[in-house]
Design goal:
Layout lengths: L2 H14 L2 H15 L7 H16 L7 H15 L1
């Protein structure tokens, strides 16, 4: 079944849905579209602070290859 056929079938289901099914479909859509991670105001401010620090002092950060190597080594050492 193609995506367009699935959407058409879903539209038919929604057209015939009772109140309970409509509520469930809305809840499912909301859950699916919600971001998985939720950050506090303090965490977001910390992200911005780190970003600003790295942008003002790029030498304090890591090159992509260095970062990948650090992550890989950390993962290997954790196992």
């Amino acid at each position: 079944m193609s995506l367009s056929e699935k959407k058409e079938a879903l539209l038919d289901i929604v057209k015939d849905a009772d109140e309970k099914l409509t509520g469930l479909l809305i809840a499912l859509a909301n859950e699916y579209n919600e971001p998985e991670e939720k950050y506090s105001k303090e965490e977001i401010e910390s992200f911005y602070k780190t970003r600003d620090m790295l942008l003002s002092n790029p030498e304090t950060g890591y090159a992509p290859d260095e970062a990948h190597q650090l992550i890989r080594n950390k993962h290997k050492n954790a196992i």
